Amino acid sequence: MACQTKIAKAIVNKGADYLLAVKENQGGLSKAIKQVFRSHRAEPIEFSSSPLEKSHGRVETRQCFVLDATDLQGDFSRWKGLNKIIMVESSRAVKGKPISLEYRYYISSKTLTADQAADAVREHWGIESMHWVLDVSMNEDACQIYKDHGAENLSCLRHIALNMLRAEPTKVSIVGKQKRCLMNPSNLERVLEAGLSGASKN
Question: Which residue range or ranges hold the Transposase IS4-like domain (predicted)?
Answer without folding.
Answer: 3-164
